[in-house]
Design a protein that fits this description.
Radius of gyration: 18 Å
Strand content: 15-25%
Shape: globular
CATH topology of the largest domain: Jelly Rolls
Largest sheet: 6 strands, antiparallel
Structural class: alpha+beta
Order of helices and strands: EHHEHHHEHEEHHEEEEEEEEH
Length: 239
Amino acid sequence: MIDFDYKIYKMSDVLTNEEYQEVSSLVENFEIDLTQINSSLGFLQWSSRIQNAMKTKHPERYERMVKENSYNYEDYRCLAEINDEIGVQENDYFNFLMTHRTADLMNSKIVHLYDKAFRNILKNIFKKEVVYEQVLFGHFNVYPKDSFIVNHTDGPTANDRYFTILFFLNKQRKYEDGSLLKIYTENETIDVVPDFNDIVLLDHMKYNYHHEVTKNMVDDVRYSLYTPFRLDDYDNKLK
């Protein structure tokens, strides 16, 4: 059992200085072409109110999204306009962001460096060696302007996870830019401004705290690399 509810590592502490400087340089120029993203509709989990409004205002677009089980950046902008009109109510669940993963991206230099950082973190946590080729098997979360994730927990679907690790791929974002990761513990609220030097781990075995991503208020796209670490990963990929 891990001994933290949440934990924030510093990239500068888990890579060599040379590797850290390389990550810093790569993050400076990191960008995903939003027009090339086809995001999973299942991850959106849009409320019935948003769905009905989309179906009424943009019926052909709605039907295509449902048929293809995906949405593109133009669809995203339509959803942003609808959300501005009708908003999210207390019981609505709406993952309003985009997700992306390609083989080229997952084999890029920056992901390999993040993979090395994760290996060093796993060694620090479990005092075991990593014995598999690549640990970062998740995807990129892409947060354009107006994106957010409402307050939620990752259970019960997270019951097979030790924790989730989040790497950021932004520099020099400010608190007022939004897209903050907010973690609600038993005693406090932690606001994390997304910055590549901060690596956030969220426990799911014991605490599974509520968390959210606040609305991105600026044109600067917020990126994170998302990977769950599961119980069978511990059993099969460490020794």
